[in-house]
Amino acid sequence: MRILILGGTGEASALARGLAGTPGRDVTLSLAGRTASPKPEPVPTRTGGFGGPEGLARHLAREGIGLLVDATHPFAARMSRNAALAAAQAGVPILALRRPGWARQQGDDWTQVASMAEAAAALGPAPRRVFLTIGRQEVAAFAAAPQHDYVVRTIEPIGDALPVPRLTRIRARGPFDAGTEAAFLASAGIAVLVSKNSGGAATYGKVLAARRLSLPVVMVARPDKPAVPQVPDAEAALALILSGELPPRG
């Protein structure tokens, strides 16, 4: 059986590692291409888009894909919609790997918002030093609140043309543990964090660090995703696939 994993997450890589070399399965991992130097993977990879749901449906049919796994980022709403539509058009089973989101714990000071625009507004009128942990694609939304000093940490470089006047750029690749994050937040004089509710352990260190330092967090809620068969982690996805009990065709 040929399996296409839509990836870009740790769970996608973990599933690819689990499936690599298993008999009777030909696995390809598809990456969006936003990271110039992705980590090596144990299965063949492809990079770039498909041309919308129709293009992905044609790819599924042309390559004889027997299972489509949507293991994209929790905020990759468009890709998940395209995957669900393409699976339905091509009549291919689809399985979504969706990690649970974070829940507010005792000691957390969260303001929960539905969008980046709401996050910028939630920072308030008084100037603050803000740590943006949202990825480089979303930084421009904070041009609406130019009174703040922003610090953004990304894997890839950010262009100089962003309309955010006071922006400190840091390039680094995680994961970062809570101790490292707490030391950084304190040394950088951060007053508030802005984070996507990505879930998972890999980036939870910043949430733990904010709790330790009693720093407020503006937490952006996840977008809605299509209703397709889903599992919470790579282990569950691997067990289901190896059992041969595939979800219904899309």
UniProtKB/TrEMBL annotation:
Gene Ontology terms for molecular function: precorrin-6A reductase activity
UniProt-listed Enzyme Commission number(s): 1.3.1.54
InterPro entries documented for this protein: Precorrin-6x_reduct
One Pfam family matching this protein: CbiJ
Record flagged with keyword Heme: no
UniProt superkingdom: Bacteria
GO biological process, one term: cobalamin biosynthetic process
Name of this protein: Precorrin-6x reductase
